[in-house]
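The following record pairs a protein chain with its ligand, adenosine-5'-triphosphate.
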Amino acid sequence: MTDKTIIRFEGVKQQYDRSTVLNRVSFEIERGKFYTLLGPSGCGKTTILRLIAGFIQPTEGNIYFNGKVINNVPADKRQVNTVFQDYALFPHLNVFENVAFGLRIKKLKNAVIADKVKEALRFVNLEGYEDREITEMSGGQRQRVAIARAIVNEPEVLLLDEPLSALDLKLRTEMQYELRELQRRLGITFVFVTHDQEEALAMSDEIFVLNEGDIQQSGTPTDIYDEPINRFVADFIGESNIVPGRMIADFRAEFAGKQFDCVDQGFSPNEPVEIMIRPEDLEITEPEQGNLEIKVDSQLFRGVHYEISGYDKAGNEWLVHSTKKAVVGSSIGLRFDPEAIHVMRFGETEEEFDKRLEAYSDPAQAGAAGDGR
Ligand SMILES: Nc1ncnc2c1ncn2[C@@H]1O[C@H](COP(=O)(O)OP(=O)(O)OP(=O)(O)O)[C@@H](O)[C@H]1O
């Protein structure tokens, strides 16, 4: 734990009846950053938010806030506010009263409330909308009222549970920029929940990828995109080619019936692995000039690139994103760099994975691990 840590989960388990929704999850959240909990429906994202907010208590483990255990601190005593998916605004109150609601409960003076509400509305670009009825506001504007109502309490952490999912694509993209910008201006910690990987990649400083009650991987968007820990993360974050293979030795992998140089090490000789290559890292060449040859099966124009798929001689399917066209039924070559080959070990924990990656970037450790070439 560092002095930047604001929230820490230590072995937190959550059970409803007999089903375990979180399996002894441990992680840290630092002050002033934009975090995203990303994962498919039902993986436990909202449960983590509810635990941070104090709407539920963990079955096991501890939750720390600024270094103190808060398992039994009631929700209204936590320095945390939540923006809900459906905004949960009061339809019978106007914009001002919706934002002022929490402050009235705290019995602040009217002049103080007026100042704070004005400031919060300014932050979300809704100055002058104080007297509007909620029913007269658009989806995007309601969203901003909900955010103003949360930030008016000056929380240390803002929790956002799929706040953009009700908006259409264009507005959603606009709000992504706005939220990111708002977080920078406010300088407080945001914990944002989404099942949309593009949204997570675009907005976050740090992403936690969840599946079935476990954190599969945590890291920056580029870490997670470039070095996914396993098939689940690789598949969930972007499109990927994943084929079976084995590590012959350090820096030498075999897949699709051939051997290739790669940048991975620290595996047992002949260890079975999964090989991942992103579609945009494959370059189309003449059939005999590539590292692999595939027979083109289909081609779709996607606006910026062509999406080409085909099969190699070993029967693996490959997806290619390229600005070059290919002819369905013809053979093409695929060229890729050793750095484009990502080797994934079966059943590796995040700790082991991080250690292995660190060894690549630290020549002293890499040497100690033995260069098997
Ligand atoms: N009060 C409850 N009682 C019983 N089961 C619950 C309760 N709340 C959530 N669950 C279950 O816990 C699991 C995780 O739910 P959670 O809402 O945390 O998932 P999520 O990742 O946020 O999903 P979504 O994206 O669909 O909102 C689900 O299987 C859900 O059915």
